[in-house]
UniProtKB/TrEMBL annotation, chain A:
Residues 16-25 have a biased composition (Polar residues). Residues 1-25 are annotated as: Disordered. This is Ubiquitin-conjugating enzyme E2 2. Keywords: ATP-binding, Nucleotide-binding, Transferase, Ubl conjugation pathway. It comes from Mytilinidion resinicola.
From TrEMBL, chain B:
It comes from Mytilinidion resinicola. Residues 627-641 have a biased composition (Low complexity). This is Anaphase-promoting complex subunit 2. Belongs to the cullin family. Residues 622-641 are annotated as: Disordered. SMART domains: APC2, CULLIN. Keywords: Cell cycle, Cell division, Mitosis, Ubl conjugation pathway. InterPro entries: ANAPC2, ANAPC2_C, Cullin-like_AB, Cullin_homology, Cullin_homology_sf, TPR_ANAPC2, WH-like_DNA-bd_sf, WH_DNA-bd_sf.
């Protein structure tokens, strides 16, 4: 084993001891966020952890009224890093969506999820920003160029594509 | 005689056939002449010899059979017993016998009948004709038990007589000749053929065997062996003085038989039966049956009694009996019955002992549950079972039987949890005695533990019981039906064994005393060296659940506590700490420290107050008409709770009140550590509110600006009411004090109200005035009505009862000494008050109340869960709730289902089968 290997393996060993404490902090923070989310219950947005460790959540956004997304609902996944809330969570659209700032894999181009992230944001504010992004796309830096173009030029075609792309939950209606 | 005639004769007795008149005497037979010979010539040629022998044999036969034939007399007892007088045994007879038996007249094999055969046949016919009817009269019908003995004796007597009758001619006349002949043969000729030597013995044996076969066939075999078996059993019972319940009452025992005589009687009978051929294997079988049954009866009769007083096992007695009572009898009987003598082996005795213990054990196991309930006194029985457990299959039998008994008699809705807990403790103790390594206990207790876990009140009862002091005189007021298990409380008094052995013993390599688990242990078997009952109870639940419950109950206890030192609670907390570990009980410790600290703070604050304020008159406005004063007395804990709102270290305070006129004592609680407390808000009486403010101010001075949040509904007040004709003293709940205080006339009302009539208040008025929950107002009103202070003048309107109504004539008999309620209505009301006092809500919010309080939150969680995670069954919802709800979700799947059903009714959620999902 070379020295370099040794170094990396040591480096790998050291983090867990730190991360257990930070994990506990993250969990505590997420617990609080969940509680707040539950207490405030903003209509149209909702989120819930996938399992016990709280590091992965699923969220649901209802498309805002008076936008092409009205009446549709979208599922998102949240994945929180152990450094949360110092670094932003990874957020992806799980439901296929046609939107200028969201690519076909569900990746989102939103400043507060990138360089503009701040520890005062939380799940709720992220979801609210995303909800408003649906109605007000940032066409200056599109991930989906066609969508950015159609948004202004042909709203009817845009609407058609949104509906064509959208897939409802496979879950059976109860 | 040929075969056909024999058959004919056996069916239709023809005397003439049995011994014939020889032909030569009637008509001399000359034979036939051969062709070519002269007829009737005296030289008959070759055939003459054989013809001559025929004639001679016929003659001899006739003589011999005539001599030997049995008396043809109609059946009569007298004749049978009378010795048969034979015709004189002349020389011709002897010659004829010799001729036929050993001489030339011996029957040729297969062709001619021999004399012995003939005699055997003669006997058979005689028996069928003259003896059999007598036997049939005995055996044809069922033999009643009480007649069995006589029947056997009679049979034996008859058979013995006829046997003598039959054997006599045979032995006297036939046998000697045969014997003589065989003696001759052996002495004169050296022959290696042993058959000739033994011929006479063989003949005699054969004759006897035929005879015995005849006898045996005359009796119905089943009935005979049953009767014999019964007689032996009965004899055994009488011999050992067994009490037998035959359905008609107990038999035997009291009629004390002469034991040696009885024993001889039995042996004699058996000997007699053996003599007439009724012994042997059949009788041995019957005897075995009898002894088998006898052992059972004997155990039931003598050993089913449990020695409740000396608490000793009776196994040794039983062994002794088998060795010294049972086996000698068997030995004696076997000596009589056995064809060849067989001695009773030592290991036979051992086997019988084991058999006896097995039976006793099985009988004991059937009643194990009763022994458990009466544990301690039933130690003897348990020790018996312990001995029984050494038998193969005993453990399986025990655990099966016991779990049946438990499910039938214990684990049903009719048994109180307290009872089940008590029984469980007895089970633990008894099984520890039975099998110290605990495998059986684990198996037996599993259903009980599972059932106890399912009961809602188990944890509460266990913990309340742990907190109860058995030696406390207060404990006496709890009846046997109360929710306190005295067994648990008593168990708590015992010294504590060390709980240091938490670690896995199997991994302790240096343990020199290590032993493998018992081979019948289940995989999750844990060897518990400590026979500690509390340990078993505390492991019923997860530790966390238990501690939560403990917090609730301890909180309630502390808030109600009268003892300023909280000695008992401290001690019990220490005990529980030892058992559950220090680390988990931090909250409980803080709670205890809070109340102790409060006492100190009260002393310092109230002490400080004395010099400057004790002289100050209290702001009470005594109404001339209604002198119902709320006067708080020194040791009065009118309580309120204060909470320090800082999120990091919330401190709550519960205030009591004392001083000379009004005193306020507070209990300052750290809300973070306490279970949720009752937070009903209402207006406390003005003087108390003043005191609260003063206390608060001083507290803030002492404790460096920490703030108090009052919880007025917790705590108690001592109240003295001055009514027109009496004074009422009571220690009451704070809201009750507030309500009665509100009955003081307001200044505006003073002039209007009449002197005779107290101030009246309606329920809505009080609710408004005090800003108190209506439920609490009503509770207080009922309480005061019960105390005879208030009366309901109109529906929902109450007034002070200034003077008690004069007792009516009918009530006088029921009156009491002055000062106490003197009318029967008052008695009834007092009962109502007691009932109301019972209903007092506890200071700590129960889990059910918490469910109602937290329901909106839970609904949010459920909605969030179903929206984002998709459809799921209630079980999954429960699991998720338990994981994500802060502080845990202390309910079960039933509550979750109810919650979901509620949401379904509101249309927010849809459910198909057992799966629920959001309705869009």
């Amino acid at each position: 084993m070379s020295n370099a290997d040794m170094a990396t393996s040591e480096a790998k060993i050291s983090p867990p001891s730190r991360s257990t404490t930070s994990n506990a902090n993250v969990t505590k923070r997420l617990q609080t966020e969940l509680m707040n989310l539950m207490m405030s219950s903003t209509p149209g947005i909702s989120a819930f952890p996938n399992d016990e460790n709280l590091m992965k959540w699923t969220a649901t956004i209802d498309g805002p009224e008076d936008t092409p997304y009205a009446g549709l609902s979208f599922k998102l996944s949240f994945e929180f890093p152990t450094t949360y809330p110092l670094t932003p969570p990874t957020v992806l659209f799980k439901t296929p969506i046609y939107h200028p700032n969201i690519d076909f894999s569900g990746r989102i181009c939103l400043d507060i999820l990138k360089d503009k992230w701040s520890a005062i944001y939380n799940v709720q504010s992220v979801l609210l920003s995303l909800q408003s992004l649906l109605g007000e796309p940032n066409n200056a830096s599109p991930l989906n160029g066609q969508a950015a173009e159609l948004w202004d030029s042909d709203p009817a075609e845009y609407q058609r594509l949104v509906l064509a792309r959208h897939r409802d939950d496979e879950e059976t209606e109860l | 005689m040929d075969h056909q005639s024999l058959v004919f004769a056996s069916v239709f007795p023809v005397p003439a056939l049995s011994h014939t008149t020889p032909t030569p005497i009637a008509t001399p037979e000359l034979g036939f002449t051969a062709p070519g010979q002269s007829f009737g010539g005296p030289f008959g040629g070759a055939s003459a010899g054989s013809q001559h022998r025929e004639v001679k044999r016929n003659l001899a036969w006739s003589t011999a059979t005539r001599f030997l034939s049995l008396p043809k007399l109609p059946h009569d007892e007298g004749h049978l017993s009378a010795r048969v007088v034979h015709i004189h045994k002349g020389k011709d007879v002897v010659e004829a016998l010799e001729y036929l038996l050993v001489g030339e007249g011996q029957g040729e094999e297969g062709k001619e009948e021999s004399l012995v055969d003939w005699y055997t046949n003669e006997v058979r016919i005689h028996f069928v004709n003259y003896v059999h009817p007598a036997l049939r009269s005995i055996w044809d019908n069922e033999i009643a038990c009480q007649n069995a003995w006589e029947a056997l004796e009679e049979t034996q007597r008859i058979l013995l007589q006829v046997q003598q009758l039959y054997l006599q001619p045979f032995n006297n006349h036939i046998l000697p000749i045969l014997e003589h002949e065989s003696a001759n043969t052996t002495s004169s000729t050296i022959r290696l053929d042993t058959t000739a030597e033994d011929q006479h013995i063989f003949a005699s044996w054969k004759f006897q065997r035929d005879l015995h076969g005849l006898f045996a066939h005359a009796l119905p075999p089943q009935r005979f062996s049953k009767t014999l078996s019964y007689v032996l059993y009965n004899g055994g019972c009488r011999l050992f003085r067994v009490y037998v319940d035959n359905g008609l009452g107990f038999v035997g025992g009291d009629a004390l038989d002469d034991v040696p005589k009885l024993r001889n009687g039995i042996l004699q009978l058996l000997r007699g039966l053996q003599d007439v051929g009724l012994g042997g294997e059949q009788a041995q079988k019957a005897f075995a049956h009898a002894m088998d049954k006898l052992m059972g009866s004997f155990i039931v009769s003598h050993y089913m009694k449990v020695d409740w007083f000396s608490r000793k096992s009776i196994i040794n007695h039983l062994r002794q009996w088998v060795k010294d009572g049972f086996s000698p009898l068997v030995r004696q009987v076997m000596e009589v019955l056995a064809d060849e003598p067989k001695s009773v082996q030592a290991n036979d005795v051992q086997q019988w002992q084991d058999m006896a213990i097995g039976r006793l054990g099985r009988a004991r196991v059937e009643n194990l549950f009763d022994f458990i309930i009466n544990w301690d006194k039933s130690l003897g029985a348990i020790l018996d079972i312990k001995e029984y457990l050494k038998m193969p299959g005993a453990k399986v039998n025990l655990s099966n039987s016991f779990s049946q008994q438990v499910s039938r008699r214990l684990l049903h809705a009719g048994a109180t949890t307290t009872f089940i807990l008590n029984v469980y403790i007895y089970v633990i103790r008894a099984f520890n005695e039975l099998e110290p390594n605990g495998v059986l206990l684990e198996r037996a207790a599993r259903p009980i533990r599972r059932y106890l876990k399912g009961r809602e009140d188990t944890a509460r009862i266990v913990i309340s019981s742990l907190l109860t002091d058995v030696e406390d005189e207060n404990a006496a007021k709890f009846g046997p039906t109360s929710e306190i298990s005295h067994e648990i409380a008593a168990e708590m008094q015992k010294p504590i064994a060390s709980f240091a052995q938490e670690q896995d013993d199997d991994l302790n390599w240096s343990d020199m005393n290590w032993q493998p688990h018992p081979m019948d242990a289940s995989p999750d078997y844990r060897k518990s060296k400590v026979e500690d009952v509390i340990w078993f109870l505390l492991t019923l639940y997860d530790r966390e659940d238990f501690i939560n419950e403990l917090k609730q109950i301890l909180g309630d206890y502390l808030l109600r506590g009268h003892d300023p030192e909280y000695e008992k609670e401290t001690r019990l907390l220490e005990l529980i700490k030892l058992r559950l570990g220090d680390d988990k009980l931090q909250a409980c410790e803080v709670m205890l420290r809070d109340v102790l600290e409060s006492n100190r703070i009260n002393a310092s604050i109230n002490g400080e107050k004395k010099p400057d304020e004790s002289a100050m008159p209290l702001p009470i406005t005594p109404s001339p008409h209604t002198p119902a004063n709320n006067q708080a007395q020194p040791r009065t804990p009118a309580a309120a709770q204060a909470r320090y709102p800082a999120p990091s270290t919330p401190v709550a305070a519960l205030i009591k009140q004392p001083p000379a006129e009004h005193t306020l004592n507070a209990q300052i609680l750290s809300s973070f550590f306490w279970p949720p407390l009752r937070e009903d808000e209402f207006h406390v009486p003005a003087p108390i509110a003043t005191l609260q403010r003063e206390y608060e101010a001083r507290f803030e001075r002492v404790k460096g600006m920490r703030k108090l949040r009052w919880l007025p509904s917790l705590g108690r007040a001592k109240v003295e009411l001055h009514l027109t004709d009496r004074t009422v003293d009571a220690e009451v709940q704070t809201w009750q004090a507030s309500v009665i205080y509100a009955f003081q006339a307001l200044p505006a009302e003073n002039r209007n109200s009449k002197a005779e009539e107290g101030v009246a208040r309606a329920v809505p008025q009080l609710v408004e005035l005090l800003e108190m929950d209506e439920g609490l107002v009503r509770n207080a009103l009922v309480f005061w009505v019960g105390m005879g202070v208030l009366q309901e003048v109109r529906p929902d309107v109450y007034a002070i009862l200034e003077t008690l109504p004069k007792p009516s004539a009918a009530d006088i008999t029921a009156t009491d000494t002055a000062g106490n309620p003197t009318t029967s209505t008052a008695v009834v009301a007092a009962a109502a008050a007691a009932a109301a006092a019972e209903l007092q809500p506890s200071g700590v919010v129960s889990t059910t109340e918490q469910l109602a309080q937290n329901k909106p939150l839970y609904r949010q969680f459920v909605m969030g869960m179903l929206t984002n995670q998709g459809n799921m069954p209630p079980v999954r919802v429960l699991m998720m709730l338990k994981m994500v709800v802060p502080g845990g979700f202390p309910y079960g799947v039933e509550e979750v289902r109810a919650l979901l059903e509620e949401l379904v009714e509101e249309g927010k959620v849809g459910g198909v089968g057992d799966v629920f999902g959001v309705r869009k």
